[in-house]
What does this fold into?
Amino acid sequence: MSETHFRRMKDLPSTHLLGTGTPMCAGCGGLQALHEIYDILGVRTVFVNAAGCMTLLSVYPFTPFRGSWLYTAMASAPAGGQGVRDALDILLEQGRIGAEEDLDVVVLTGDGAAYGMGLSATSGAIERGLDFIYVCYDNEGYGNTGQQFSGATPHAALTSTSMGPRGYPGYKKDLFAIWAAHRPSYVATVIGAEPLDLARKIETAKSLTGPRLILALAPCPTGWDFDPKQSADIGKLAVKTGIWPLKEYIDGRVVHTRVPHPRVPVEEYLKLQGRFAHLFAPARNESLLADLQHSVDGYWAGVESAGPEAPGAR
Amino acid sequence: MSRKLLTGNGAAAWGARLARVDYIPAFPITPQTEIIETLEQWIDNGRMPGRLVTLESEHSMITAAGAAAATGVRVFSATSSQGLLYGMEMLYTVAGWRAPFVLINVSRGLSAPITLEPDHNDVMAARDSGFLQLHCATCQEVLDSTLIAYRLAEDARVRLPAIVNQDGFYLSFTREPVEIPEPETMASFLPPFDPENMQFRASAPVSQAVAVLGGGPYSYFRYETHLASLKALEVYDEVSSEFEQITGRANPAVECYRTEDAEFVFVMMGAFATKARQAVDQLREAGWPIGLVRPRLFRPFPEEKIREALKGKQGIAVIDQNISFGRGGVLHTEIASSILGRPGMPTILVSFIGGLGGRDISAEEFYQMAEITKQAVANGIAPEPRLLYTETELREVRKLQAIAHAEREQLRTES
It folds into this structure.
């Protein structure tokens, strides 16, 4: 990207477009990210939503969106985006609408759809070169149904379907790499707690065409078990500890937009969240804590050895 | 107007072409694939405008179809069997969006066991989805019904998607002479799609398909959909008579064949009803007062017309080419509930199930069904539902099992 409009915090939009009074939980990191994203994407958008927490944003007869919205189902929001995009293109081609009536198609889903049920529809949309932005609010579990583990749940986290002493036995799926392997136009990780980095990435995404993913880590007070007022702090710690790398894939290269140095120990992030409380009490689970720190260290060692601009998926 | 030998699939493709469809989300499945191949070739060589996009599943295909219709373009799609079921969640969903488009279903039996040949269990599974359903018995009807279905679906009083059903193989791959109307004639019969307020535009932001909380708003929208579907009964009559004026071809919601003076009636849908029609002719020659009632429109269900057709008859044989396990034939229960408690209706309704997975229904079986119905009227009691199957067929299956067992036995002794 050549020039950004967003150099300092005061460059961020001061007018906020998404309405208030939605039924999202207090401290919802997904809603925070969506507010920031919508402010930059603007109202000439149609949000195509999949089943998830944010399905409840638009409840008849109200909506917080000043632009348009279409709810589909859990698995096929990208296909809904395809239908809307193709129809708009047909209308433009036939001269039935002018360019001023065109809209950007934005698919909005949680991690359940993005990492799991909707992955086939997503892969198909990327392979067809669909011109759309996919926004995933990743709260690392099936949040809307009470935080069962999903393909996005991190290792060792307690969820309502992984309540054992070691938590979730699996490992968080690398959706960034899955997308990048399709060679789309753009892939970026963001977090609401870093609004400047987020704004620049939305600005970049908006300037491009083709399939684009904005993957937002969404700290979830109810699902991760923390006080809603800590949501932004937890978000910042996710970046500072290196557990949520802020990066983008563009022109076949991965660029880390924030390299935390020195990195805060991962346990500073974990200990604020009830879903990791079993790592600290009744006794510290040193080996599991070490595993988690080791995995983050390993990631960044890979980044450092490849240089900040590494070709390929990571 | 030109006359051509067309398969049912070819007729469906011609229906889409004459409807000047804008958008065709597609996914291949036997026996439907020829429809989308034909359309793709026409689009590729410039013989028709439009855009065909192959999705990665029928679930996505129906989603894209509904989303495009909700954006205000004319949409066509086609599927069969497992594909229809794979898209089932979205059939219900896009009907709830009130997104009008036409979906051809080329009927094929459902798994398991997996098969390629036809029966109606696939389309019956979509019965309660909100899609209108038109059932065809000839290739000509496939073309005509496709055009009629657009008028019906897009009508402001209805605005629901429609399924046009044709039987796999028996229609899809069978060539029949089909009259193809002139494009100009069809352009005046079917004007461009006017989506009214159903669209996504920068100047008119709108939220479609939003969630509801509570049974009040939910029931409101569900009832609206039901009432809109019922509206399609009168709209169908209007549209089909207009179509008849233009083309000379009648496509009544319920086809009655030699029923006026009949005492007995076969009730049947789809291509196999042409076999029933032939049986009626032969039985008539043998002196039987018998006819055939064939609902073309299945959703909404033309109850009133069914009652008119069955009034004063003595015995009805309902032949279902579907099976609701643990209950029996779907059409049988629909007919029964339509006539129950109404004056002058026949009290003897006999249920037969046949033609599953493309199994033939022979002339002899039609004669026998007539005989059983006549007996039931004489006895004043309807017999248990019959599953059509012959001794020979059972013997053939047993023989195959015996051969397979013997071969396995031989392998075991050799090793």
Notes: Strands of chain A lie at 45-49, 68-71, 104-110, 132-138, 186-191, 211-217, 246-250, 253-258, 309-311.
